[in-house]
Design goal:
- By secondary structure, the protein is mostly helical.
- The protein has 7 helices and no strands.
Length: 168
């Protein structure tokens, strides 16, 4: 009986890669979500800002960011498990862009500094584009997973600019 169970267990797929991928997704979502716990758009200052016509409903932000951070987590996992020579550089760029991403929320909401936040998001856009290039050299799938993130950061940069311009 024990031998039959052992043979059956050997035939089951190895779940460790999937568990690691889930771990990367959770890690990126936790890191990305931390600034939202420290500063929020629910301040009087933000509520009083004049918003552009294309400002999305508030419910869109947590949905979009969770989806994007999930894609980033999968992309990061793909790069992490690669043995490519460009892996270290790609991981370093990912960490830099993530740090920049995390810095935007407190700059905008806690410091109430849309111009500073605009500088941060423009830097973020550059780092995300560079990360995509570095990821592409390691794993094209990982680079493709970052494309929606770059599009959202582009939209967010325009939104940040309009919020600054309309309220300066």
């Amino acid at each position: 009986m024990a031998a039959a169970l052992a043979r059956f267990a050997r035939r089951l797929p190895d779940r460790r890669p999937l568990l690691r991928a889930v771990g990367f997704v959770l890690l990126v979502n936790v890191v990305g979500g931390l600034p939202g716990l420290l500063s929020s758009p629910d301040t009087d200052w933000f509520q009083r800002l004049e918003k552009p016509w294309f400002y999305p409903p508030s419910v869109a932000f947590p949905i979009v960011w969770t989806a994007l951070f999930t894609l980033l987590g999968i992309a990061l996992w793909l790069i992490w498990r690669s043995e490519s020579a460009g892996r270290r550089f790609a991981l370093g760029l990912f960490v830099l862009q993530m740090a920049c991403n995390v810095a935007w929320t407190p700059a905008f909401f806690a410091l109430e500094a849309p111009l500073l936040a605009l500088g941060i998001i423009l830097t973020l856009w550059t780092l995300v584009a560079a990360t995509i290039v570095a990821f592409r050299r390691v794993d094209r799938r990982a680079a493709a997973l970052l494309a929606p993130y770059l599009l959202w950061v582009s939209f967010a940069a325009v939104l940040n600019f309009e919020l600054w311009r309309a309220n300066a």
